[in-house]
Amino acid sequence: MSDSVKDLFSEVELFLPSYLTPNEKEELYSGLKDFPENVTYYLQRGRQDEALQGDVWSSLPIINFDTYDVKNCQGVIISNSCDISPENERFLPTFNVIFAPLIRVSKLRRLLESSNISEERVSSTIENIRKQYNTSTFFLPAMGEVIEEDSVALFSDMRYVPMSKFREQGVKNITLHMQGFYLFLMKLSMHFCRFNEGVHRF
Predict the structure, then answer these.
(1) Given a cut of 60, is residue 61 above it in pLDDT?
(2) What is the pTM (predicted TM-score) of this model?
(3) Domain 3-192 CATH (choose: 3.20.20.70, 3.40.1190.20, 2.30.30.110, 2.60.40.10)
(4) How distant, in Å, are the alpha carbons of 8, 49, 134 from that of 2?
(5) Domain of life, per the record (predicted)?
């Protein structure tokens, strides 16, 4: 486990959301204490008419900038829930929805194997991704027909879709459970907010 992940989870109780009831806090804390073995990733019942940060959606268009071909993919919503809510009136409108495409772990393994990396290193990298130890990825286990195979979102591979196109063709697949969502937020924060980067900017 990387030190940043280890340190954060050793003090996870300090960062629990203040809006939760005591029982909800206890449930969330208990689940996160068991990380990475017993994390509840998905909410079994969620509103299909709302888009939330951390949702998995399909039919999201991505562009290949070498060929300018467009294809649709499944991805995790990175945008803030409030920013993409149509009920939230804003002086400055939200023009795009930011998301990270999902890559099947089996495909990622093949890509790593084709890069002249030792089998031992490939296996350890995949294992670290599955256990959420890698801070630049977010692992999502398979979920029936909704997420057909174990998959991963790469935080270094962000895409966007215009809000109008997102509303027109995007299909919501599943919402993260509070445990999965909080894990998602912590990893997103660790990837993009490096307070301990060690670079002197004075």
Answers:
(1) yes
(2) 0.83
(3) 2.30.30.110
(4) 10, 37, 7
(5) Bacteria
